Automatic annotation (TrEMBL):
Gene3D superfamilies named among the record's database cross-references: Fe-S cluster assembly (FSCA)
NCBIfam families in the record: SUF_assoc
InterPro entries from the UniProt entry: Fe-S_Maturation_MIP18, FSCA_dom_sf, MIP18-like, SUF_FeS_clus_asmbl-assoc
A Pfam entry, by short name: FeS_assembly_P
Name used for this protein in its record: FeS assembly SUF system protein
Superkingdom field: Bacteria
Domain MIP18 family-like: 13-83
Signal peptide location: none
Length: 108
């Protein structure tokens, strides 16, 4: 039987779906559409590394939000491990929001 190979693009899509279930408590838009996720890396061992930011460094969920992201991504069957790196470089700005998020917040 051939070794089952999981498409990392497919896994990437599943990760994005999970990220879209996580909301910033102060803004009724998910963290993916807000532009808080800068990058998602998946290696051949299905270890995931997520580079993300928060709307501000003293965001009230600075402790819990990254933990929630890590736990929800780790809960995916195909994911071996998840490491989250928080960065404020570049700092988040409203320019990073998707059209969908801007529309949702009445900014368009």
């Amino acid at each position: 039987m051939a070794e089952q190979k999981i498409d990392t693009n497919e896994l990437g899509e599943k990760i994005v779906k999970v990220l879209k279930t996580i909301y910033d408590p102060e803004i009724p838009v998910d963290i993916y559409e807000l532009g808080l996720i800068y990058d998602v890396f998946v290696n051949e061992n299905y270890d995931v590394k997520i580079l993300m930011t928060l709307t501000t460094p003293n965001c009230p969920v600075a402790e819990s939000l990254p933990q929630e992201v890590e736990e929800k991504v780790k809960s995916l069957d195909m994911v071996n491990d998840c490491e989250l790196e928080l960065t404020f470089d570049p700092p988040w700005s409203q320019d990073l929001m998707s059209e969908e998020a801007k529309l949702e917040l009445g900014m368009l």
